[in-house]
Specification:
The structure is a single chain. The chain is α/β, with parallel strands linked by helices and about 240 residues long. The chain has one domain: Rossmann fold. About 30% of the residues lie in helices and about 30% in strands. The strands form 2 sheets. It has a 6-stranded mixed sheet with strand order 6-7-8-3-9-10. Strands 2-1-4-5 form a 4-stranded antiparallel sheet, covered by helices on one side.
Length: about 240
């Protein structure tokens, strides 16, 4: 996916998601349409249960929409097979979740190297890249500690390094600071913003933290099944 600055990385057209709830259908959202340009840092805000996580899962080819389309560059995600979706995620995307999902039996270095090892990158090269990314998130001194020996903020920094070690074009982050105290959350958000700039990422961040959302380039509010764009500076923390 080779795009110039300002070109559309993601195009969402009339997206709808319906869940079966007993005898009735629950429409989580419908008719969502928006675009994301290369290099943008976009926040998605909304109440708990509004569908932020589900929307990110669809944009990341982890779930399928009930109707509508998502295009990444010129690739229609809904047309991908399961294997094709997995390849797309592995090649183009980095994910960070509210919970870090680090493998407890492995060190920080091994956790970060794992996506490369799964691509059959030789171990020495994979661990070299992992070490470089641990340095980028300020944790090179903790490389040989297991996840249980790290603080919550350190665990999330390792998860961020793991998400970016494959050099994805798009970062999808679902409440990445949701489990952290306010001071740690602020430092992790600052790190995400710096890595976004330094590595020319396109980032979509679902967050309930309006102070963080207000520092993004654009903000989409998801509520009552609809999406509206709001000016970042109108939000308050």
């Amino acid at each position: 996916m080779h795009l110039r600055d300002g070109e559309k990385v993601l195009r969402v057209e009339r997206l709808k998601k319906v869940f079966r709830s007993g005898e009735s259908d629950l429409v989580l959202f419908e008719n969502l349409s928006f675009q994301v340009s290369k290099g943008e840092m976009l926040a998605i805000v909304g109440e708990s249960g509004a569908g932020k996580s589900t929307l990110l899962h669809i944009l990341g080819a982890l779930d399928r929409a009930s109707a509508g389309d998502v295009y990444c560059a010129h690739l229609r995600l809904g047309s991908l097979s399961d294997d094709g979706a997995a390849e797309f995620r592995n090649r183009e995307l980095g994910f960070v979740w509210q919970f870090h999902y680090l493998l407890p039996e492995f060190t920080a270095l091994e956790n970060v190297a794992m996506p490369l090892l799964l691509r059959d990158v030789p171990r020495q090269k994979a661990e070299g890249e992992a070490s470089r990314w641990l340095q980028a998130v300020g944790l090179e001194q903790r490389a040989h500690h297991r996840s249980g020996e790290l603080s919550g903020g350190e665990q999330q920094r390792v998860a961020l390094a793991r998400a970016l070690v494959t050099q994805p074009k798009i970062l999808l982050a679902d409440e990445p600071t949701g489990d952290l105290d306010s001071g740690t959350a602020n430092s992790v958000f600052e790190l995400i913003a710096r890595l976004h700039r330094d590595h020319q990422l396109t980032s979509l961040i679902a967050t309930h933290n309006l102070a963080f959302a207000s520092r993004c380039d654009r903000v989409l509010r998801l509520q009552q099944g609809r999406v509206e764009e709001v000016e970042p500076q109108t939000l308050s923390g």
